[in-house]
Amino acid sequence: MHSIRRLIPALGALALAACSSEPTVTAATATGTHAAASVAASGNGKYILNAGPQGFSPSLGDDIAALGGTIESVHGEAGIAVVSGISNPGALGALNGVREVQGDEEFSLDLPAGSTMDADANAIGDVTIESVSNPAAAPRYSWQWNMRDIEAQYAWAAGKLGDAGVTVSIIDTGIDYDNPDLNGLVDLSRSASFVASDNATRAHYFPTRNDISDFNGHGTNVAAQVSSKAAVHAGVGSKTKLIGVKVLSASGSGTLSAVLNGVLWSADHGADVANMSLGGGFSKAGNGRFTSLINKVFNYANRKGMLIVVAAGNDAADLDHDGNFNSTYCNQSHVICVSAVGPVVSSGSPDLSSYYTNFGRSAISVAGPGGNGGVAYSAWPWGTDAYSWVWSYCSKTRLAGFTGAGVPVLAGCQAGNRVTGYIGTSQATPHVAGLAGLLVAEMGHGQPSKIRAAIEKSAADLGQPGTDPQFGRGRISVRRALGL
Predict the structure, then answer these.
(1) SS3 content of the chain, % helix, strand, coil (to 5)
(2) 3-class DSSP state for residue 275?
(3) What was the pLDDT predicted at 29?
(4) Which of 53, 120, 201, 345 has its CB surrounded by the most CB atoms within 10 Å?
(5) d(CA 411, CA 433)
């Protein structure tokens, strides 16, 4: 019997700040002046500026300094800047070249009921054995109903394992980049953290680690579904390169400014695909600036040839009838929005709509394996359980919280001998991103629209013909997408 314990996904809230390594691009010459406008207060003291058609003024730095503020980041080509220290944010709208101003917003990972599960990996034996050329030989492939559901094994048998020249960006909580499944697959030279609180914790308490070290665990699980050396668990690919872009803290919290900078960083550093297993939302009324900012960044990423794959969310909500609510990021342009399926019992269909998944005929593109849960317990390869988990290594730097003195407390995975199961649309999404990576290897770079169309066209129809509210075009099929 494997040792298993249920975890509660709750860490104390951490203070957030944006970033240490945002891209900086010289801005174009700007013209025009706006009247000062009312700007909603920012929860973290940061404001996001949206440039006009001519870009930001060359004097933006001086103008912000004259208002007592600081430029945290500026991306001239995309026309997005983040500033802080502004006591009168309404004055920002009067600056030359600034079209819109939006107070930064904070959000947290939305995990479904059921949380996560830990199990030991001591019984695996020599986890240094790689199964890169045959991921189905991974020691715990028997646990991976999810990979069999999308027929990934047919691609592996045909030698379609991905390519090191293809990059998927994991925009998340970071990555445990040197565990046996991921060691060598994560390009640290192109990775970055946009979470100052985590950066400070890493520098003080984990000085030998990279800034993208995962203090939460979520990003590591997501990354391993995309690409894995299959030392323990297989990924959709085994050679696809990953970059970690940390925008969520140890508590799973983040800011809109960090997410936008993370997308821009990914597009500027050669990512063919960006996986965004994160979400949030805002009222549509009076928040047109949010949509404008996000679409502007996503349009830029699309022009750079990067496909964005996003999670539908875990609120069991109908995104077609969400009234005044905008569910980021499924409502934005140039995205594949992914819902979740999974088995309820070990002998049942793996393609039951997950109890938590958001849905919507116009919102959902495709479905992927995210896991499921039921009232009854049943036998699984990992033991008796009510949930169908999506497994990966547990991050060695996952934290259980902080002491009263602010010292981080490790969650018990530091020996590198534990694995973790998650459920959620967060887990469904990287299966789609992993498939996108395989298709880029087949079809070439810089074709996000073609890759998206190939994924949707090849999906297995699970419900109503055409676009189903639960499954979109259907559940993805690696075999069909690659013509096998």
Answers:
(1) 25, 25, 50
(2) strand
(3) 28
(4) 201
(5) 29
DSSP label at residue 97: T
Q: Which run of H or of E encompasses 341?
A: strand 335-342
Model confidence pLDDT, tens digit, residues 38-51: 566 677 899 999 99
Q: Cα(239)–Cα(131) distance, rounded to whole angstroms? A: 11
Give the Å distances, CA to CA, from 293 to 88, 102, 257, 451.
Answer: 21, 9, 10, 25
pLDDT grade for 403, boundaries at 50, 70 and 90: very high
Nearby residues of 466 by Cβ (< 8 Å), 6 or more positions away:
473
Write out pLDDT tens, residues 332-385. Answer: 889 999 999 999 987 779 999 999 999 999 999 999 999 999 778 988 999 999
Burial of 185 (0-12, 13-18, 19+ CB in 10 A): buried
Range 67-80 average pLDDT:
97
C-alpha 474/C-alpha 463 separation (Å) is: 8
Instruction: Report d(CA 332, CA 386) in Å as an integer.
Output: 35
Q: Which residues pair with 393 in a beta bridge?
A: 419
Long-range contacts of 205-210 (CB under 8 A, 24+ apart): 205/407, 205/408, 206/397, 209/397, 210/177
**Contact indicator for 122, 63 with CB cutoff of 8 Å:** no
CA distance 2 to 94: 63
Q: From start to end of 52-154, where are the E strands?
A: 70-75, 80-84, 98-103, 106-108, 116-120
The rounded Cα 245 to chain-centroid distance in angstroms is 9
In terms of Cβ atoms closer than 10 Å to its own Cβ (0-12, 13-18, 19+), residue 442 is middle
* Collapsed DSSP state (helix, strand, coil) of residue 391: strand
- Cα 82 to Cα 104: distance, rounded to the nearest angstrom: 9
Tokens found for residue 303:
């022009």
